[in-house]
Amino acid sequence: MNLSYxxxxxxxxxxxxxxxxxxxxxxxxxxxxxxxxxASNHASFLDPPLVGSGLKRDINYLARESLFRFPxxxxxxxxxxxxxxxxxxxxxxxxKMILARLLAGNAIILFPEGTRTKDGQLQPARSGIGxxxxxxxxxxxxxxxxxTFEAYGRNHKLPRPHRVVxxxxxxxxxxxxxxxxxxxxxxxxxxxxxxxxxxxxxxxxKLEPREG
Length: 212
Description:
Blueprint: H1 3-18, E1 23-25, E2 36-40, H2 47-53, E3 59-64, H3 71-79, E4 82-85, H4 92-103, E5 107-110, H5 128-135, E6 140-146, H6 148-152, E7 165-168, H7 175-181, H8 186-206
Parallel strand pairs: 1-7, 2-5, 2-6, 3-4, 3-5
Antiparallel strand pairs: 6-7
């Protein structure tokens, strides 16, 4: 971790431990080195730093490209390993940068649902994460956050002191589907992207907010 990232990481850990009384489970399932995709549900703006704060390695985040146009904010985001993407969080340029980060041995957090939930429930996965997984060789660690919707969901103007939990699941390997994707036709390839996304979302849904 560089100095800026470590300072931010430390501050967020203090905030989650005190104001939100956080609990972290399964962090040992995330490799300490090498490229890895952290696939999490998305309920709040609290989610990205929560997922990152629970780990002892730095991770890469997605941030809107427009934010990088402001010198101060842009510099801070770069020091926090942010990846600039378009408004929809996709696009060829964004995908290329994500894959480059993974190839360089970095961890990156992605949200299969694509956007924050409106009611606190899990949403269907979009195929975009499936494309990223198939194009990469990185393992996928399913992650589920609990309590962030109640603490700071779409309807809240300010964060509430509600307990939050982050749980990291067992790594998933999509070697068989990656191999099939190299030779299948376009129609099947689209099916594979969605299949990968659905399997990841199913793994996320199985995670519980407790030990065991």
